[in-house]
Amino acid sequence: MAQKELHLKVTLRLYSDDDQRCFGPGIATLLQRVREHHSLRAGAASMEMAYSKAWRIIRTAEAVFGCKLLSSTIGGAHGGGAVLTPEAERLLAAYEAYCADVGAYAQEKFEEAFRFYRELDQAGQ
């Protein structure tokens, strides 16, 4: 029987003390897309996420962290838009660095723990 390759996927989510999810891969991607598109609506659309859900995610995180994550402009000659606040940039950078560190550590431990995996098929033959 042929074996499939194994790989590790670690996802990290931050929760408030009342166990409310407030930061994770979804909001991180949303913030990255807002940075890229200069718009919450366009960022959410690029993820196939409803605009109302994007606002809900942003508001939840803002309530937990006690700061604004987006600085928005309304209408005008060039239309509205949004940029990340310095606080959002700092949170996103910290989350990305933490995920990279934890991911590297987890990958190393995964390889140590499942080193025997390829030998399983041969053991039964």
Tally the helices.
5
Terminal residue distance: 10 Å
Q: How does the major sheet shape up?
A: 2 strands, antiparallel
Q: Helical amount among residues, as a percent range?
A: 40-55%
- The Rg value, from CA coordinates, equals 20 Å
Number of strands: 4
Shape: elongated
Structural class determined from secondary elements: mainly alpha
Which blocks of ≥5 consecutive residues have pLDDT under 50?
none
Beta-strand residue percentage: 5-15%
Secondary-structure topology with pairs:
Layout: E1 14-15, E2 21-23, H1 25-37, H2 40-46, H3 51-65, E3 70-73, E4 81-84, H4 86-113, H5 119-123
Helix pairs in contact: 1-2, 2-3
Structure description:
There is one protein chain. With 125 residues, the chain is mainly alpha-helical. The protein has 5 helices and 4 strands, in the order ββαααββαα. The strands form 2 sheets. The protein has a two-stranded antiparallel sheet. Strands 3-4 form a two-stranded antiparallel sheet. The longest helix is centred in the C-terminal third of the chain and has 28 residues, at 86-113. The radius of gyration is 20 Å and the shape is elongated. The N and C termini lie close together (10 Å).
How is this structure best summarized?
The protein is mainly alpha-helical.
